[in-house]
Design a protein that fits this description.
The complex is a heterodimer of chains A (345) and B (254).
Chain A: H1 2-24, H2 28-53, H3 61-78, H4 83-105, H5 110-130, H6 132-135, E1 141-142, H7 158-180, H8 183-193, H9 195-200, H10 205-231, E2 233-234, H11 241-254, H12 261-275, H13 283-297, H14 301-330, H15 337-344
Antiparallel strand pairs in A: 1-2
Helix pairs in contact in A: 1-7, 2-7, 2-10, 2-11, 2-12, 3-4, 3-5, 3-10, 4-10, 8-10, 11-12, 11-14
Chain B: E1 3-12, E2 15-24, E3 30-34, H1 41-49, E4 56-61, E5 64-65, H2 71-77, E6 79-81, H3 94-99, H4 110-115, H5 118-137, H6 153-165, E7 171-175, H7 183-198, E8 202-206, H8 210-216, E9 219-224, E10 227-232, H9 234-238, H10 241-249
Parallel strand pairs in B: 3-8, 3-9, 6-7, 7-8
Antiparallel strand pairs in B: 1-2, 1-4, 4-5, 9-10
Helix pairs in contact in B: 5-6
The chains are: A mainly alpha (345), B alpha/beta (254).
Chain lengths: 345, 254
């Protein structure tokens, strides 16, 4: 209970910090970067559900991000649809395309799944890049409207956009948290641990995988939609492979298959990347080795390493308690500890 | 007739892994399948549990032909199985790991999970109670709150049993449950299997530890090169010339 209370306070603390942050800094650039980071986080959460919790590493997520963004762009700029209607339609379009692609992609596994989705992602990029009539091709789409206001609420200013996107991020985190801590989430984890075992436990693996795939594209699409109306200009680059790998890097650094991983990873990488801006592209010379070292020593990222440390500490405590009880019971004289150590070894 | 196979055959290309095996399980008893390495024991398990579809032949469970059913449907009918190794979610507690075993008896969806509906709460409780019950049954109540990463090899075997039992099975197939654990622990697992039978669950296991099998099993089938070479009580099997040849005559590996 104490631990839960503790976690609750930590989480509320972070939310509070995010809420008051715009008043702590007068720098609008920082706010802009942070808002963008929130958008990436939403997409990373989507990727995390699929890659982290279900064990299917999709490399098509920039594609779905772009599908969301372009759907909104086309529906608002070219069709002239009402903003929130276009918002909803974009999410539905992303999900439908996700469902169709998932139906095929999920017939493959592991590396083949990764390679297949990599190809799908690239094809989505190509379609956007080449289909001039629909997407504007390399020129992209300009003049995407900001989210329409509700009554007194309007999202014209960067500050209000910040809160809107923060709201969607918190909603995403809440959803993912609830899913992970539920029978459905445990089902996904069971699939990740062993698909064969999951099947013999009576789990319809294909159905569940398809559900996660669609859900994860939904989050990618949501991030794309928010991006489009935040930046208000989109080009085919947002669907390019580098975005997928950026998302993956955020996830890996933070901790794949952990709840806090996407936030920690994204914040850290975005911050480091911004601080090394003066090095231009040479900053990759620093990133590369750091990332390699991290993956070698902490394959489950920063949060994963933290959990591992906690597990080890818990185990040590338990062993110590066990030894102590043992000693008290069987060897009233104190010199039994070395004995015990030998036995353990 | 409880569960039986009719002329079950599985070919992998030119290799005949299981050849024309007809076998029926004795309900409420411990059935065992033995045989040298590569005799087709695991393949036989995979055919019955639906992981592989047979090339020909049938699997009948309570007068229903389940030959072509996918594994999850077979599990729903009450046929559970364990694997030689069980991958658990190490960052989660033993109890949480076992909860998912009862998932097939629940209906809550993603939407239930996100909205935390009444059904979600009811079914979460149901799965939790089931997990507590089966962990108690396999004797792991003490470690149920520990992380799966911190339990011993033998405890992992018991968790595998618990997972299978959480599906509410009528028959459990155990793939080498005593592999990689010491004689004392083997004894404990044998006790556990007897306890399962006392509960009315039919057990069928693959095992290499002969002493254990001969003491434990009510009925034994011997496979060699994919074919059934003998079937009967432990006494019959021990005195069967073909079995002795398969184990001792051909090679020194036994």
């Amino acid at each position: 209970m104490a631990a839960l209370l503790n976690r609750r306070t930590v989480i509320s603390g972070f939310i509070l910090l995010a809420l008051v942050f715009p008043f702590l800094t007068k720098n609008s650039y920082v706010l802009h970067i942070l808002t963008l980071a929130f958008i990436w986080m939403i997409a990373v959460y989507g990727l995390n559900l699929l890659a982290g919790y279900t064990g299917y590493l999709s490399l098509a997520h920039a594609g779905f991000f772009a599908i969301g963004a372009y759907s909104l762009g086309i529906l608002t700029v070219k069709v002239g649809m009402n903003y929130w209607l276009a918002f909803l339609s974009s999410l539905i379009i992303t999900c439908i395309l996700g469902l169709l692609i998932g139906l095929i992609a999920l017939r493959t596994k592991e590396h083949f799944f990764a390679i297949y989705t990599l190809c799908v992602g690239y094809i989505i990029y190509l379609v956007i890049d080449k289909w001039d009539g629909l997407t504007g091709g390399v020129r992209g789409l300009i003049g995407i409207p900001v989210p329409a206001g509700f009554g007194p609420l309007s999202f014209e200013k960067p500050l209000s956009q910040y809160y809107l996107i923060l709201f969607f991020l918190l909603l995403t985190v809440l959803m993912v948290y609830r899913i992970v801590h539920s029978l459905s989430g445990r089902t996904f984890i069971a699939i990740r641990n062993s698909e064969e075992l999951a099947k013999t436990l009576g789990i319809a693996t294909m159905k569940n995988k398809l559900m996660v795939f669609v859900l994860s594209t939904l989050f990618a699409g949501l991030a794309g939609v928010l991006y489009a109306s935040f930046i208000r200009f989109i080009g085919p680059d947002i669907g390019y492979i580098t975005i997928t790998f950026d998302l993956l890097m955020y996830l890996l650094v933070g901790g794949i298959g952990t709840l806090a991983g996407p936030i920690v990873g994204t914040l850290l990488i975005v911050w480091v990347s911004q601080s090394l801006q003066f090095l231009q592209d040479y900053r990759m010379l620093i990133f590369g080795p750091l990332l390699t070292l991290l993956i070698i020593f902490y394959p489950r990222g920063i949060i994963g390493a933290f959990y591992e440390w906690k597990i080890k500490r818990q185990e040590k405590k338990r062993m110590r308690a066990l030894i102590k009880n043992h000693k008290d019971a069987e060897f009233p004289t104190a010199n039994s500890v070395p004995d015990k150590k030998v036995k353990e070894g | 007739m409880f569960l039986k196979t009719k002329e079950l055959t599985k070919k992998f290309g030119g290799l005949i892994a299981v050849n024309d095996v007809s076998f029926s399980l004795e309900k409420g008893k411990i059935n065992a399948i033995i045989g040298p390495n590569g005799a087709g024991k695991s393949t036989f398990f995979n055919l019955v549990s639906g992981s592989h579809t047979p090339t020909s032949g049938q699997v009948i469970f309570k007068d229903q032909n389940i030959t072509k059913l996918p594994p999850n449907k077979i599990a729903e009918l009450g046929i559970a199985r364990t694997f030689q190794t069980t991958n658990l979610f190490e960052q989660s507690t033993v109890l949480d790991n076992v909860k998912v075993g009862h998932r097939l008896r629940t209906n809550s969806t993603l939407l239930d999970a996100v909205l935390r509906t009444k059904r979600f709460k009811k079914e979460e409780r149901k799965c939790r109670e089931k997990a507590i019950e089966v962990l108690d049954f396999v004797g792991l109540t003490d470690v149920s709150d520990q992380l799966a990463a911190n339990i011993t090899q033998e405890e992992k075997k018991r968790v595998a049993f618990a997972l299978a039992l959480a599906t509410d099975p009528e028959v459990v197939f155990l793939d080498e449950p005593a592999a990689g654990i010491n004689p004392d622990e083997t004894e404990g697992l044998a006790e556990l299997m007897k306890k399962m039978v006392d509960r009315g669950i039919t057990v069928c296991l693959i095992e290499h530890k002969m002493q254990m099998i001969m003491k434990l099993a009510d009925k034994i089938m011997v496979l060699n090169y994919g074919e059934k070479i003998a079937e009967g009580t432990p006494e019959e099997i021990m005195n069967n010339q073909m079995v002795i040849e398969a184990y001792l005559g051909g090679s020194a590996s036994a």
